Amino acid sequence: MKIHELGHVVLYVSNLKKSADFYKDILGFKEIHRDLHTALFSSGRTHHELLLIEVGGNPKEESRPTPGLYHIGFKIGNTPDELKSAYKELLEKGVTVVGATDHHVTHSLYMLDPDNNELELYVDVNNDWIEDPKTTMSPAKRLPYSLD
After folding, report:
1. Which DSSP helix (H) or strand (E) runs through 31?
2. What does DSSP assign to residue 141?
């Protein structure tokens, strides 16, 4: 067996309207379907990439690492200007950005969704990983530019 690609992510959410509106209005996912307890989204690459299922409860409060999902990464482009633009848009929409990192092959912003799931928005900045996959594990550092 061989995995061809990551197909989709399913998240349990505390409030479907709040979470679905976030993924649609803030991140720009195309909403395919929404009913009383589920919302389905796609960027157009495949039939669906994100499914939200409302289960109620409260957003997670744990701030220290625990076993389980750390974050979900979404590619938003290939240039620092696209990352800067996304940063400004997130701030305009009231989203708290919790980090920004240069990972050598990507430059990333980190933020939280309404249930405090961490999301990474990134741009690919080079293709070094094609020749040397280990460059993906280069030490993380500060972005070499200001986001403002």
Report:
1. strand 30-34
2. B
Amino acid at 66: T
Q: Tokens 């696209």 belong to which residue?
A: 82
- CA–CA dist 55, 16 (Å, integer): 9
Tell me: do 75 and 31 sit in the same domain.
no
Do both 86 and 140 map to the same domain?
Answer: yes
Number of neighbours of residue 47 by Cβ within 10 angstroms = 10
How far, in Å, CA of 108 to CA of 102, rounded? 6
Q: For 56-100, what is each residue's pLDDT tens digit?
A: 999 888 777 777 888 999 999 999 999 999 999 999 999 989 999
Question: pLDDT tens digit string along 23-51?
Answer: 999 999 999 999 999 999 999 888 899 99
Q: Is 1 part of any domain? A: no
For residues 107 and 50, state if they share a domain: no
